[in-house]
Structure prediction request, 476 residues.
Amino acid sequence: MQHPGLSDAPPDHIIYVWRGGKIFPNNVMAQPDMGRDIQAASGSLLISLPQQRVEQTGRRAHELAAELYPLCRSLTGEGVRGTLRRLQELIPLTINEIPSGTPAYDWVVPDEWNITDAYVLDGAGRRVIDFNASNLHVVGYSSPIDARVSREELLRHLHTDPDHPDWIPYRHTYYRESWGFCAAHRLLAELTEAEYRVRIDSRIAPGSLSYGELYLPGTEPGEILVSTHICHPSLGNDNLSGIVIAALLAQDLQLAPRRFGVRFLFVPATLGPIVWLSRNEPVAAAVLAGLVLAGVGDDGAPTYMRSRRGNALIDRAIEHVFRHYSPAAKIRDFAPTGYDQRQYCSPGFDLPVGGFMRTPNGQYAQYHTSADNLKFVTPGALGDSWRLIRMTLDIVQENLRFENLSPKGEPRLGPRGLFNDAERLGLLWLLSLSDGRHTLLDIAERSGLPFWHLLEGARQLEQSGLLRRMSERDAE
Ligand code: ZN
Prediction:
């Protein structure tokens, strides 16, 4: 199957490129301070994430979300599999199937739920509620039913939102056998008949829980975890946005140089991470940074929820990116109420995993309703989220440690042709703090300079023989 624009060759993958003596104004991210640096630069230049590339990625993400939008995803079932199979056309994702009944710590994988049709018929045989119009009309994991019920009984099984009478709420009944429908509140006025026929063609039977996994190996021990939930039906921000951004990041990072491995998980919320952790404890121990992506496509400000540790590398990396490249973004402290980071951060693991989102769940009216649709999610916000996450993961990958090879007194930069770059690239900061104990992010935080200025400065000092790159093993 051809998907124009999505299965094309992936875009160029090197996003931070340093070029001597050339200026590429169209490629410079719209950042006033960075613009000045480009103008003032002689020698090497920072070409940051090109705006064109950010916009292109946002558009691709939105197109992919639109393709996946109609699928009826849930905790288990064909909607999830269909979603993962579509992602397999973009990235070499492994689909894992964990049989119903498999224990995972305090949980058990439930029976699988699948649905083909559902409706409520009036006396004239008209579908007054129709699963085919929106999969949100059926409560997720509803048991099958085919019965005539009184209006009163139907209303007991019908969920509406009086505050937003045109929106269909999203509900599920994962761990309690039940059936139900959801509809726009204004429909209630039209339900005047004494009796209705309700039918849900669903099946709850032993099967499996499906999740997707892709591991991209690195050259040093340790890995970065990117996790997103795949269990919501036709909802845009929560969480098609996370699914498509994770998929495009994976496609991009496949081609990027990687010091550390990167593992992508596409899992049903809560149970998915718990199942994965229960089967991968040794792998989990190697996670040195991680992000849960959820609700990353609305136009609100980016928000980061810190890991339980609060000052892990991932927390510091994203705070650095926000400070320099997204001043309106917000940081929240860890709370055991967010998305799946609370599983990765549970005390038996305490992994350094935080949550990247835009408007936090529950703080926008469209949350878990039919108004969380493809209009609520915008290409601009998707692209911006991708940009910030990509930069954050790059800091984790590039957070190198150096040793000053001329540590007794300050070495002379002039004879090495570096004096003009000393201030701009923080060369003196690099020489001063490169004692093997400080990483580039440590130096960036202490000096107030952007990480990538220091990275370029370190490369120059390395070429001049003044710094030696250390491996993480040297530092231990
Ligand atoms: Zn949700």
User: Anything to note?
Assistant: The radius of gyration is 25 Å. Residues 232, 238, 368 surround zinc ion (CB under 6 Å). The chain has a mean pLDDT of 90.
